[in-house]
Amino acid sequence: MVKKILALFSVLFLITLIGCDDNKSGSQCDFEEVRENAAMSECLADDFITGFGCSNLSYTARDPDISVGDRNLCTVIDCETLSCEGMRVEFGPTEPGFVEQLSTDEETGLPIGVFVVDIFESDFTVVFVSP
Description:
Blueprint: H1 2-19, H2 31-39, H3 44-49, E1 57-62, E2 65-68, E3 74-78, E4 81-89, E5 94-104, E6 111-117, E7 120-128
Antiparallel strand pairs: 1-2, 1-7, 2-4, 3-4, 4-5, 5-6, 6-7
């Protein structure tokens, strides 16, 4: 009986380990960690793609609503500009676009910039996604 309980706990432990973040997609970050990661960035465009090392980081623009589907489909043009496939405007079909004017906000220290898709342009902000 004890062996079965130990075996069960061992299996549960292994499942937990397998399910844990392996740092390929980053870790769960809080506001301060994102600020520090952005401040230490050598190239904001590179770090935009990796979410500044944070798996719970997303970017959103509201006027109009523009989003980047898969940041891995973005290509760095320079450290302030990306070309991205799969951007979406107002929940429409995906299309190519740009992330431009990447910088850090002087007040918050968080990454900011502009999404540009066709004739649409919108400032984006950082959003912390709940797991």
